[in-house]
Automatic annotation (TrEMBL):
One of its GO terms (molecular function) is ATP hydrolysis activity. It comes from Glomus cerebriforme. This is ATPase dynein-related AAA domain-containing protein. It comes from the Eukaryota.
Length: 92
């Protein structure tokens, strides 16, 4: 059991200038993240806390026009991630 008290901050891109604090309880993290975005009616994905943080960092860097390099094995979902962010977050 992980008893750490680390704080995870989630930047909600749908509500400008807001953040949500999520404590590191792995059993509740996905539930809390889904509750934050349930009004968006997005398709359900398996999101880990690590992936949520990475997505938040990508969004923050993109907003500030800082280049982001997405790398991974063939077929791991790089293009799907960019498509998802562009369509559902930036509404491109």
């Amino acid at each position: 059991m992980d008893y750490s008290k680390h704080l995870i901050i989630f930047f909600n891109s749908q509500i400008p200038d807001t953040i949500s604090a999520l404590y590191r309880d792995r059993t509740k993290l996905e539930y809390l993240a889904r509750r934050l975005i349930e009004k968006l009616e997005l398709p359900k994905y398996a999101l880990s806390g690590d992936n949520l943080i990475k997505m938040a960092l990508i969004l923050l860097k993109a907003r500030e026009n800082i280049p982001v390099i997405i790398c991974g094995d063939a077929g791991c979902g790089k293009s799907s991630l960019i498509t998802y962010l562009a369509r559902n977050v930036y509404e491109i």
